[in-house]
Structures are given as structure tokens and as C-alpha cells.
Write a structure and sequence with these properties.
With 161 residues, the chain is mostly beta strands. 0% of the residues lie in helices and 34% in strands. The chain contains no helices and eleven strands. It is globular.
Length: 161
């Protein structure tokens, strides 16, 4: 695999595996909350929170991550052996509970001072996955049009903010 970006997600998996084809694969795994086993090769892992699980890999750049034990290397600004109860608010909906607490060790400690986890980075996760920009929630059109009738299309849009 190459040229893949996995950014601002909650990932729960028995085995989350990304296998880059070379050291220049262009695979970026950034600002995620990961709960489970991570197997990654020839990739960049940064600003992630490994809630629980194992890490295995090689040829990676691993920096500015937090883990509950010592899964990542104790260098490159990784933070090890963190009690996850100090990281997340742990209440609310299935996605809001992964917001960072006010004094979270993941707050402002990512690359370039950004927050770690899915609510940090350039395009933070939005609760329920609905961004604060207009979205199309209904679209209808016939399978084909004609030169005399054109192609009649109906679209419904919601502002979301």
C-alpha cells in the first residue's frame, strides 16, 4: 500500500494492520484514537492515542503518541504508561467520550503543539461525523435526461451550524 492517510478517527480492531511497500510509502496515521493491536510498517504514526493494545512494526517514524503502557518507543516525544482516565472525558455519546479532558496529557503535546487524538490536528473529528459546513442530505435525479427536458435534479441541503 502507498499514499494512504488515516486521520482523525476512532479505530477499534483486533488487528489494525497497514503494510507500506517501502520506506517512502507515504502512509500517514495521524490524530487517531486506537483501541486494539496495531501492526504498521513503513509509515508515519503521529499524534495518536493508543488506548489499549499492542504495537508492532518496522521502518516507521513514530512520534508524538500516547499509550497506556510502553507500546511505543520512549523517544520522539512519545508519552508512555499513561492512565487513560486522565486523558479522556469518558462520558457522553460513543464519540464524545474521546474528547480530551482540560488537563489531559494529550492536550497541546502533539506535533507543533496540537492536541493528540481524533479531536486534534488540522481537521479535527466532528461529533457524530457531521462537519460545520453545508451537507446534502437528499438527492434525486432520473437515470437519464433528454435534450428537450434536460436532467431535472432535486437536492436538499442542511447548514449544520
Amino acid at each position: 500500500n502507498s499514499n494512504i492517510s488515516i486521520v482523525n478517527n476512532y479505530i477499534r480492531a483486533n488487528d489494525f494492520a497497514i503494510l507500506g511497500t517501502s520506506s517512502s510509502s507515504g502512509i500517514i496515521i495521524e490524530n487517531n484514537v486506537i483501541d486494539g493491536r496495531v501492526t504498521v510498517y513503513n509509515s508515519i504514526l503521529q499524534n495518536n492515542i493508543l488506548v489499549e493494545g499492542d504495537y508492532e512494526g518496522g521502518g516507521n517514524t513514530v512520534r508524538y503518541n500516547i499509550c497506556n503502557e510502553s507500546q511505543f518507543y520512549d523517544l520522539n516525544s512519545n508519552i508512555l504508561n499513561v492512565d487513560m482516565a486522565t486523558v479522556f472525558v469518558e462520558s457522553g455519546s460513543s464519540d464524545s467520550k474521546y474528547q480530551l479532558k482540560e488537563n489531559s496529557p494529550a492536550k497541546d503535546t502533539g506535533l507543533n503543539g496540537t492536541d493528540m487524538g481524533m479531536f486534534g490536528g488540522l481537521n479535527p473529528y466532528t461529533l457524530s461525523g457531521i462537519p460545520q459546513i453545508p451537507s446534502i442530505y437528499e438527492f434525486s435525479a432520473p437515470f437519464y435526461g433528454s435534450s428537450s427536458q434536460g436532467l431535472p435534479v432535486n437536492i436538499k441541503v442542511k447548514s449544520n451550524n
